[in-house]
Task: structure prediction
Amino acid sequence: MNVIRYVMCALLALGALGHLYGTFSGYPLGSEVFVWSLSATAFTLAVVTFNLMACSGDRFPVVAAMVSAAVWAALALGFGSAVGNIFDPRAVIHAVPSIMLATLDAKSLWDSSHRSKRLSRV
Result:
């Protein structure tokens, strides 16, 4: 399961690096849209970081990873909708790994809650 998480984190990190490149090459330095685009890159890297921390198995990083990945997936799909093509590669490179990560995080939370219930019955 962790291999899938690492692969999805790597894909999302590549998407963030592409976004960073597009930010610097497409917008004037210090402009309003430059700052917003840079903040989106930072959020994407935070999603990657939370998901790498979720490998520890602690509940809080898993919840933070799941929520941030789900929010980023929604924003990526919203971007795809805004440009008129939900399957735009710029949206897909962010949405697919984020959906996968949010799903893995939800499964991890589900498994841990069932495991703790089983242990409490013993």
